Amino acid sequence: MHFAIKIRTYFFLVRGLTLPYAYTNIVAIHPFSIPQHISSSFTILAAETSMEVSQSLLPLKDRVAIVTGGSRGIGHAIVNHLQSLGARVAINYASNSTQADLLASELNASCTTDHHPQAVAIKADVSDPEQVKLLFDKTEQEFGSKIHILVNCAGIMDQKYPTLANTAVEDWDMTFNINTKGSFLCCREAARRLTRDGRGRIITISTSLVGSLLPGYAAYVASKAAIESMTKILAKELKGTKITANCVAPGPVATELFFAGKTEETIQRFVDGCPLGRLGEPKDIAGIVGFLASDAGEWTNGQVIRVNGGVVV
Ligand SMILES: NC(=O)c1ccc[n+]([C@@H]2O[C@H](COP(=O)([O-])OP(=O)(O)OC[C@H]3O[C@@H](n4cnc5c(N)ncnc54)[C@H](OP(=O)(O)O)[C@@H]3O)[C@@H](O)[C@H]2O)c1
């Protein structure tokens, strides 16, 4: 859709003629440069054909992605971005079906291709092995396809920001259950069943706090540091499968998770600490995920990529 709007060239399907570009049967000519006698031998299918061409330009066309924690915040932006690149997306969430359903229906309504549905909302707690398996099963069933891309975005943070000495065992366990065990379970399922045709991509989400090591984040950062190490080893273990595994580590991003429990002063300190003088927005993170998910991202493998506007270098 986006490409279709941007590409203002008209495309003409040649009827019965063999042209150098005949394998696609499509030739692009600016409308004002076509002499009348030539244009009469073309069947002008501008609208439909520009849609076909725009679809074929989409780097994730015909690919199926799961985005865990895709209903809100960074995951929401990643879902939007992957879909704009042509992917069909399973939007996973834990409890809040309203936002996930709304996003799915918006994406399905915006799409005019044959590929329906474009998006589905699937409830699953990523810390539960059975629910993770069902998430993958349902995604395959809904889209009638193997899965190509996993983006493991679901995560939580203890909004009390306790020192390690004051961290409750229950809070430590919950953080590790959802962030670390959840990533492990989703990565394990993906390693077993993502497509092995060169389009398989696993993208985990950590945090740039692994670099800055701020007090008050011990459980959260430890849970994410484990994801970074796990992702690097996974990339090596996936040798021979053509599946890549990378980790994206955002800095502060303006989402519910970031704002929860923080004072105005604390938030301002994060803004002041950024060379670009602002918080990240969810879409600032989605771009790199789209790149890693694409063919162009193939050679980036086993890496942790910090995306933070320069907050942590
Ligand atoms: N925001 C930041 O500053 C920042 C910085 C670095 C890294 N990150 C990481 O980026 C990821 C997304 O963060 P965010 O700020 O976008 O968070 P968010 O706005 O709070 O969104 C969290 C998402 O995760 C889902 N979720 C939570 N627990 C889940 C579970 N057990 N199973 C499945 N889904 C679950 C939520 O679904 P429900 O709505 O149903 O609960 C929601 O879709 C997290 O991994 C976070 O650690 C965030």
TrEMBL record:
Keywords: Oxidoreductase. SUPFAM superfamilies: NAD(P)-binding Rossmann-fold domains. CDD domains: THN_reductase-like_SDR_c. It comes from the Eukaryota. GO terms for molecular function: oxidoreductase activity, acting on CH-OH group of donors. Belongs to the short-chain dehydrogenases/reductases (SDR) family. This is NADPH-dependent aldehyde reductase-like protein, chloroplastic. It comes from Gossypium hirsutum (Upland cotton).
